[in-house]
Amino acid sequence: MTEQGTSIIQEFDQTPAKVFEAVIDVRGWWSKNITGSTAAPADEFVYDVPDVHHSRIRLVDVVPSQRVVWRVLDNTFSFVQDQAEWTDTEIRFEISAGADGRTVLRFTHVGLVPEFECYDVCHKSWGFYVGHSLRKLITTGTGLPNEITDDVEVIGARMESVAG
């Protein structure tokens, strides 16, 4: 697999342990409509926005306070031709010590490249979920995940309100 992908790097005053706990609390920052487990190696979960996006993801590497790696096992989007664009990509959260005792979180969706039809939407979405919602969960204890009943219009409006 190519090492290319979309990345977001953030720094926090919180400890690596606190950043790690927020990352594995996927319902706290991505979507409350996650089924399955999201914390230990070999856990699998499903992310679903009905009629728009469905992903089944496995945790393939989990090292507390250091890293979490997901592998996308299967994925479908309603808005692209090639339904395999996310399949077999890796989503990495790498936690390390930064300057002045700060914690660095590097998020990379390895394999999500500009050539993909979904790239613009997915890049923007990760910017919201990781750059805003996960950041908020880490810094305040409350993220901005999708609600179980949210449809794509509600989700889009939430993203736009933060971006605007």
Structure in words:
The protein is α+β, with helices and mostly antiparallel strands and 164 residues long. It has one domain: START domain (Alpha-D-Glucose-1,6-Bisphosphate, Chain A, domain 4), CATH 3.30.530. 29% of the residues lie in helices and 34% in strands. A seven-stranded antiparallel sheet has the order 1-7-6-5-4-3-2, covered by helices on one side. A hairpin with a 7-residue loop joins β2 and β3. It starts with a strand and ends with a helix. The mean pLDDT is 92. InterPro entries: START-like_dom_sf (IPR023393). This is SRPBCC domain-containing protein. It comes from Kribbella sancticallisti.
Condensed summary:
This is SRPBCC domain-containing protein. The chain has 164 residues and is α+β, with helices and mostly antiparallel strands.
Uncertain runs are none
CATH superfamily: START domain
CATH architecture: 2-Layer Sandwich
- The proportion of residues in beta strands is 25-35%
Can you tell me the overall shape?
A: globular
The secondary-structure class comes to: alpha+beta
Domains, number: 1
Describe the strand arrangement of the main beta sheet, using strand numbers.
Answer: 1-7-6-5-4-3-2
The tally of helices reads 4
CATH top-level class: Alpha Beta
Q: What is the residue-mean pLDDT, rounded to a whole number?
A: 92
- What percent of the residues sit in helical stretches (DSSP H or I)? 25-40%
Protein name: SRPBCC domain-containing protein
Organism: Kribbella sancticallisti
Give structural attributes.
164 residues; Alpha-D-Glucose-1,6-Bisphosphate, Chain A, domain 4; 7-stranded antiparallel β-sheet; 34% strand; START-like_dom_sf
